[in-house]
Amino acid sequence: MKKLVKISLVLVAMIAFGATSFAQQQATAHVSTDARIIAPITIAGTQSLEFGDIAVGTAGGSATVAPNGSTSTTGDVSLPSAGGGASRHNAIFTVGGLANATYTINLTNATITLSDGGANTMSVGTFVTDPTPTGTLDGTGAQLINVGGTITVSGSQAAGTYTNAQDLEITVAYN
Q1: Three-state SS for 51?
Q2: Given 18, 65, 84, 112, which is the most exposed site by the fewest CB atoms within 10 A?
Q3: Other residues' Cβ atoms within 10 Å of the Cβ of residue 162
Q4: pLDDT digits (tens, 9 = 90+) for 58-69
Q5: Is-above-0.85 flag for pTM?
Q6: Which residues contact 4 (CB under 8 A, 6 or more apart)?
Q7: Rounded Cα gap, residues 168 and 49, in angstroms
Q8: In Å, how far from its chain's centre is CA 167?
Q9: How far apart are CA 172 and CA 170, in angstroms?
Q10: Residue 79 to residue 72: CA distance in whole angstroms
Q11: Pairing mode of beta strands 102-107, 121-130
């Protein structure tokens, strides 16, 4: 009978140890889940790209307005300043969003067309942005993008005022 009691106690201990051992093989932990909604990125055109008055000889050429507003010409083209002609300056876009966030800059148009309202056109291309190809919003969530470009003028370009038949377009997106 003593043996039977010892065997019973050993079995009870084994069952208890087995149950305890099984329970120790599982564990549960918890973490919180959260999200933050940030301000959407925005962009607005605040200044147009202006080439001003352009004088062209028989060979034609090009005029460039850089992102910083400086100008240059090639070929038989000049940019006269006499006579109170049209202003000449780079384009400016204002970007807004999350403070200190980085974003990509994508010029949507490779070229745009200027027209005198009739059959005469000129192409503007070789757009350059500053900053490029990414920007960083400042501590207030703002930054300016300056844009320059080059206009191609043929030697037979008709005199007149040429305006955009399509807009210069920039897309920005958070990185």
Answers
A1: coil
A2: 84
A3: 20
A4: 999 999 999 999
A5: no
A6: none
A7: 9
A8: 17
A9: 7
A10: 8
A11: unpaired
